[in-house]
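User: Need the bound-state model for XIL:
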Amino acid sequence: MKMRISALTALCLTVLFCGCAKGDEPVLKDAFAKQFLMGAALNDDVVSGKDAQAAAIVEKHFNTITPENVMKWAVIHPETNRYDFAAADRLVEFGQKNKMFIIGHTLVWQNQIPDGAFKDDSNNLLGRDAMLGRMKDHIFTVMGRYKGKVNGWDVVNEALSDEGTLRKTKWLETVGDDFIVKAFEYAHEADPNAELYYNDFSLDKPAKCEATARLVKDLKAKGLRIDGVGIQGHWGMNYPSREDLQAFIDAMAAAGVKVMVTELDIDVLPSANQYRGADINVKVELQKELNPYANGLPDEMQKKLADRYAELFGILVKNADKIDRVTFWGVYDKTTWLNNWPVRGRTSYPLLFDRDYKPKPAFDAVIKTAPAK
Ligand code: XIL
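Assistant: Bound-state model below.
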């Protein structure tokens, strides 16, 4: 009888202990509380409650959120005279309920915007003044709605080429060289208390990094507000280099703005082409060799991914005084955009939580880089 009781006690203790151990899983936002905000981009399923397990991860681990798509022009302003705030409202409500720092993404971008936004009723490209009018209306309407609720905005997204020149976009074509300046001017007028950011990919590339620093200095010289630059962070196993990432962080600090890593994910899949940026227009056909881990990521690759995360977080932690926020582009591997970009239909593994919502070795590796409190 005595034996049986102690066996039962042992069993109870095991259950209890395992339960506790699970509850003791470290929390990202707490581990880095002294370094930077930790965030994730959310799709509408997370926010609406459809993907409740993803929402639980977000509520536990993150203190800042970014809408993955629902504040982009095509969604929030689908026709010239019609706005649709339903999904964006849900995201903002979710963030407020959880007392999170909410990012608006994004006001002025050449992608995920209807062609009609740049045209008049007769389908002709708008002239400068008319287009500036549209830009202002959009910025005032969207920022105005979330004034005091959305804390910071990606005012302009991806305006620079890898060579550091202005990309050839409809914004440039219709408004002219100063469209970035105008966007920041309107954004500050629309909500003087909101933080304002420039956001782009491949900012570790020296020419693009220099151009961004010039842009920041130019905006500041004109007396405009810019609080930070977001380096998207769609990174790979061998880029960016430590040196280039450090140089970017230093360049932004020297220009007088905070750095944000705004769209972090690390791709372990074979590169689909030589391209290292994150231009959503790039498309590559699915071939078997491009999708080698359709049935799961081998341990050896898990380890490599974990090591790469540790390496990059090591750099971020070392520069924590210059970095405000680290936001992942998604919550878990099943719904990452990298399952469908640049190749449709791959099985991708770029985030810290796996397809079953479980923390991966990369999660532990990231936690280990957090300095002792
Ligand atoms: C991506 C979203 O994740 C996808 O769901 C969508 O189909 C395309 O856009 N740079 C950005 C993000 O600034 O807005 C993009 O998000 C990824 C690249």
